[in-house]
Amino acid sequence: SYVQEGADPRLVAHAKDGKFTITNGGGDRVLYGPIAYGPVADGPVADGPVADGPVADGRGDQGRQDAAKVISSLEHIAKWKIHLALTNPSPKIPADAVQFVITANGAEQSCPPLTHVELAYTRDKFGETKPFYKARIGSSFNQDLFCALLVFSDDFSITAGLLEAGTQRLATPFGCAPDKLPLPVQAASGREIHCSIDGAATETTDELMLIVSTDWFDAHRYEQPGLYDPQVTARRMDAGPPAPLHDFFTRRVTFHTTRSSK
What we know:
The protein has about 260 residues and is mainly beta. The chain is about 10% helix and about 35% strand. It is built from one helix and 17 strands. It has one helix at about 60-85, and strands at about 10-15, 20-25, 30-35, 45-50, 100-105, 105-110, 115-120, 120-125, 125-130, 130-140, 145-155, 160, 165-170, 185, 195, 205-215, 250-260. Strands 7, 11, 12, 13, 16 and 17 form a six-stranded mixed β-sheet that branches. Strands 5, 6, 10, 14 and 15 form a five-stranded antiparallel β-sheet that branches. Strands 3-2-1-4 form a four-stranded antiparallel β-sheet, with helices on one face. β8 and β9 form a beta hairpin. It is globular, with a radius of gyration of 21 Å.
């Protein structure tokens, strides 16, 4: 597998005033927290995607549970960042052999060159309406391909549910009669994909990643729950999902969604 050149998955957990805060490696952006903990010394306590050694010198079971929660959170965010950086620097599939089309704000655009979409809630006398987009994938390649759409949300979840099978065959049009050409693969079976903002927040960011490969892979193995999900309570170790084994490429579109605070 490949990670984008220059990607920095390092994370730091800071202990201060009875709470842990997880930031990026430079310490200038809070990624998660604050998390309450048992008595520990203030200061940075972890660096890595996974810290070496104890992350907290807690007292008794509560201290150990707090340390395990911080380590689990660090690993969870690091895995999310590493998966988001997945890329292949030298794919052999021609760039124009796959068409990735996004429909949003009444316009249809291809990725590339599209990389960023601004979406906004609208409001009328009946209340708020969530913005939406649609996505489809087509192929003009000379053999069948396999594709997946991964959604990376700002709660550090990853989902592969926009395609019903997770990984779906992208059929080649070669050898097909004009009236038998394969249809594009439609995200969410062609339905509107709504971008939601939880609670009192006024903005959110989601990353949509297309993976296209010459061989089948299991997109569901990239999935993980949100960091705020109750499942994320203890350290979990696994080998992680493999990238496609042969030729593949990725494309990404960032969706930034806003709504009025009023």
